[in-house]
Amino acid sequence: MIAPKCSTFSEQAREYIKECLLNGTLRPGDPIKESQIAESLGISRGPVRDALMTLQQEGLVMGAPQKCKRIRAMSAKEIEESYFLGGTLEGVCITLALPKITKADLADFDAILAEMKALSQTVDGLSSMSEIDEKFHDALMSKCHNSLMIDVARKSCSHISKFLYYKAWNTLFTPDEFYERHRLILDAVKSKNVQVIEYTLREHYLESGRRLAKQIDDVGEE
What we know:
Layout: H1 9-23, H2 34-41, H3 45-58, E1 61-62, E2 70-71, H4 76-97, H5 103-120, H6 130-141, H7 147-164, H8 166-169, H9 175-191, H10 194-221
Antiparallel strand pairs: 1-2
């Protein structure tokens, strides 16, 4: 179902394409047919083209101007490199934010982590933890003044795992492992040790990247 917050046809088309990725209708490497999307939504092709431009900027779509657009496909190496970049940048974002992180902020982080722990005890896969995951990472970087670095950090990993390779991401870790990995991040932030924070974030994302790349490789070999 298209999110009710969508206020323009372009936004509707963008959310529709993302939904197609989540439900498997579209997969990495598949061509995107503007006419079919426009017909399905009852809109003209103009908003669909606008949506594809936005998705290309977000890294979910690839293609040259005036050429057929495709869902982005990535090699195992590209996935690992993207996760390394995301983890490195997020670690820097958090260290830049350290001077502005207050006791109240730490209490908020604890509350989000507690919510994640409670959720981990009731769900089967990571799909149900996607929103709390975003909330946790966004909160840690919220006091960083470099908005461009935050944007690149999030896009380097989030769109890959949660849209392009959603089904693989959903089973990378058990929900309990997922919680424990984020607990380690918060412990690192509380230490206020720059080297520990940057190392922890880098390793957090590197392990995710390795596991996701391995699943993609295994699927490709079948």
